[in-house]
TrEMBL record:
CC terms in the record's Gene Ontology section: mitochondrion
Domain of life: Eukaryota
Protein name per UniProt: Misato segment II tubulin-like domain-containing protein
Pfam families: Misat_Tub_SegII
Domain Misato Segment II tubulin-like per the UniProt entry, residue ranges: 2-84
Gene Ontology BP annotations: mitochondrion organization
InterPro entries per UniProt: DML1/Misato, Misato_II_tubulin-like, Tubulin/FtsZ_GTPase_sf
Length: 92
């Protein structure tokens, strides 16, 4: 199956898409013996968090008016790196 990029254009589309992504997230299975009802690689991009755990980010483009962008964080807790978690560069 191919990847799908979702376009969210405007306030109502972003509201509906938030519910879509929440529903997609509810289909994630975490048990080894349990099969997922959906293929997550279609709508999500796999990746690794700073601590090495596997993550999935939605493949989406979000567009809204300038005044509506204050509600979303630019960095979330999943990819936020604390200074204590990052080792100092060696050999410099």
């Amino acid at each position: 199956m191919r990847e799908i990029i979702t376009l969210q254009l405007g306030q109502q589309a972003n509201y509906l898409a938030t519910h879509f992504w929440n529903t997609q997230e509810s289909y994630f299975t975490y048990a080894e013996d349990e099969e997922s009802p959906v293929d997550h690689d279609v709508h999500f991009r796999p990746g690794l968090a700073p601590d090495g755990t596997e993550t999935f980010m939605p493949r989406t483009v979000i567009y809204d008016l300038k005044g509506a962008f204050g509600t979303m964080r630019k960095i979330n807790a999943l990819y936020e790196v604390n200074a204590e978690d990052v080792a100092a560069p060696q050999g410099l």
